[in-house]
Fold this sequence. Notes:
Blueprint: H1 4-8, H2 19-37, H3 54-70, H4 78-88, H5 93-114, H6 119-135, H7 147-160, E1 164-170, E2 173-177, E3 179-188, H8 190-198, E4 207-210
Parallel strand pairs: 1-3
Antiparallel strand pairs: 1-2, 3-4
Amino acid sequence: MGDGPRHYARSMGSETTRAAARLLLIEAAALRPVLEAAAIEDLDLPTVCAGWSVRDVLAHCGAAMTMLASGEVHRFTPADNQRDVEARRRWSLDAVLGELFAGYRSAAVAIADAGGVFDGVGLGEWMHGGDVREALGVADAYVSAGSDLALRLLLERSEQMGRPGAEAHIDGEAHRFGAGVVTGSIEADLETFVRLCGARRPDPGRYRLVGLDPSDLVLFS
């Protein structure tokens, strides 16, 4: 893909101690070499996000982060997101990547300043990075750099969303998922757990649920 992503990437420092903002900066640095190694035609490959190519996912991410930084955020409904993607299909690839990489830092600042209100955006952008890596054939797509922060944020989000309480054994380590009385248990490796939380085609042979349905774990769609 030439030097496009490298041209637009910025030095990603650690200006914030907020986990979701740090995760966003980590994702920016991790995604850059993946895109640099991809051929232009690879951006047309389909992703787990129905109807969206790799380029469409990148366009959605750039749009979301630009809005977050500007303070003009819509509800991120499927219709809202689709309009953002459609608008950027007329853009050049350089413009799409430019918005994307510029957006990481500005959105990280907005997330840090919001004090938790927009933590889900940082986590969601990291999840979309997994969508891109999976489509491009990268191994362990959903356990890229920052996965330790992502796990922490997923568990926090499960409590905030009031998911059924469960004991979660992720890669052999015990965690608490959801809120309220513990009614079940989860056993999975980290990538499978992330896929379950994002409804990202988890392998049924790589997890075990007791007293729960896979839908109980979904935190993003």
